[in-house]
Amino acid sequence: MSDWSFVEIARLFERKQGTAAVELALESRPIADGWMAYGGQGSYVNKSCGFGFDQPVTEAQLDELEAFFSSRGVEPKVELSPFAPASLLESLDRRGFVLREFVNVLYREIRAGEDLRQLPFGWPEGVRIERVDPTNDAAVLEFVQVSSSGFMPEGEPLSEVFLELGIKSVRHPTADAYVARKGTEAVGAGGCETSGGLTSLFGTSVKPAFRRQGIQQALIAARLARGQELGSSLAIIASGPGIPTERNATRLGFAMAYSRVALVKHGEGLVPSP
């Protein structure tokens, strides 16, 4: 039996999504009990989130939301938990917002003293996990390149926006970044952020030639151990439904908390955001 209710998990995670976007953004504004953030065209922080819990969202605030994004040339984007009020969904529907994607939020409690290196199929042979020194420019760049590789077509160069955001996230004072190595080659990478008793795992990729060897599970274990070291009682991973991240997380004790949605409003000349 979990010590956490799903709505408690949603409050924590959605708030963390909002504050993280604000910290990485070029510009941000509050909206109700959440935030709107803009990080440049093509940035994954172009979104509004963290609201729909404690304060009603007025039509005037939704007008402001649409103007905030459209005036900067990007599609308005709203991320919501299933605990958002039906009235908010109805307002967004009337305004022409449509479903962009579902994301599953998985959670796992972290117990003091548990051995987190015990993987279901054993530790991957010849793999070691290294924590990235955020003051080492070359190590940070390597991490960003590897951790971003799974989120774009193979061989496509990393955009300046993604590169700058990745570097900024690694150097955030509450973040940790990890690289998986076989020999001298970085074969996978993933990050985490820990604050308020919650460790969020993000940005995990494994190079295609090294997949299905347990490397992602090893990266998850290393970040769970970091959360344990820092006193977290809860870890969270957000994953697309049915992808390897979700399967690997469930093998390591994660369970489904809820599905969140991303809604967008298309408009002529407006650039979609990841």
From TrEMBL:
Domain N-acetyltransferase: 127-274
GO MF entry, a single one: acyltransferase activity, transferring groups other than amino-acyl groups
Pfam families (alphabetical): Acetyltransf_1
The protein's name in its UniProt record: Conserved uncharacterized protein
Organism: Stigmatella aurantiaca (strain DW4/3-1)
